[in-house]
Amino acid sequence: MLQNYIPVLLNNPYSNFIIRTIIVIVVFFLLKILFSFYMSRLSNNLLKEKKESEESIRAKKTRISFLNKFISTVLFLLAVLFILSGIPQFKTFSYSLLASAGIVAVVIGFATQKTLSNVISGIFLALYEPFRVGDKIKIFEEYGEVEDLSLRHTVIRTWDNKRLVIPNSKIDEREIVNFSLKEEKVLWTTNIGISYDSGIDKAKKIMVDLAKKHPDNLALSAPKKEKERYMPFVRVTECADFSVNLRLYFWCEDAWTAWKMGFDLTESIKKEFDRKGIEIPFPYRTIVYKKDLEKKKKR
Questions:
Q1: Which pLDDT value is given to residue 168?
Q2: What is the overall mean pLDDT for the chain?
Q3: In 3D, which of 211, 229, 188, 197 has the Cα closest to residue 265?
């Protein structure tokens, strides 16, 4: 009985289409799994490489991640086109599309303008590498670590553990501060104002001494030849209306460490200034009432 139905099923165009679709889907998923496994293995092997620098590993991981997503998208599109090509009505529809290709191209162009822009920007970001996966960057006034770069968008984990998802075309138009390019060491600053009655040299010495003692000060762990380069120092930046403004410069291992160290130093400098009698001024304002001026004139 079953033998009688098999020729009928094989000669039925709908049955052929269903069988063909199932085969295409199975092949697509097998290829995707195999390629993802190969890319994952390649990425893991990079982490075991001892000769490679951290910067080089991050660059290669970014390319592997982007290539994985790009190939998966191409395989998906090919699978969809292959399935659609088995529909007789689709062939007739495609001929009519070719007849009005100009109009269709304009419509599709407008509809996919942003999407294509993001894809092209993503390709350029992966090729020219202004940042890599794992780099610490600042963009749109947000500091964070690049977690992922896809065809459409980039994911950044911010300092407060949020995920910032930015379209690639937006990133391509903005300036990026990359703290991980070449090296992550950073020169940071903290600003403090003192009164005109306070001693500048005394205040500078307190600020430098506190920075030198801080455990995150890079000069503590630097080689002897480079210790002088990483030593904290203070400069007078301005003689303002109410204060003499001082700026403390100090080196840290990375921007995140420097950010925390800046807060620590602001607190410890304030406490030490209070103990040593160095005033941090606030604006003074003298108010003269009009009636008092009139009394003076009468006298």
A1: 87
A2: 78
A3: 211
**Is pLDDT larger for residue 230 or for residue 289?**
230
Question: Closest by alpha carbon to 179, among 131, 220, 230?
Answer: 131
Strand partners, 138: 143, 177
pLDDT of residue 2: 46
Give me the amino acid identity at 104. V
User: Which residues, in sequence order, are CB contacts of 277 under 8 Å at separation 6+?
Assistant: 198
At 163, which helix (H) or strand (E)?
A: strand 163-167
Helix (H, G, I), strand (E, B) or coil at 165: strand
Distance, CA of 186 to CA of 242 (rounded, Å): 31
All structural domains of the chain, each given as residue ranges with its CATH number in brackets, are 2-178 (no CATH), 186-276 (3.30.70.100)
* pLDDT per position as a tens digit, 35-82: 777 767 766 665 566 556 666 666 666 767 777 777 777 777 777 777
pTM of the model: 0.59
Do residues 137 and 152 touch, judged by C-beta distance below 8 A?
no
Backbone angles phi, psi at 190, to 5 degrees: -135, 130
Q: Are 276 and 206 in contact (CB under 8 A)?
A: yes
Q: How far apart are CA 284 and CA 299, in angstroms?
A: 29
**How many Å is the Cα radius of gyration of the chain?**
33
At residue 58, what are phi and psi to the nearest 5 degrees? -60, -40
Residue 17, both tokens = 């289409």
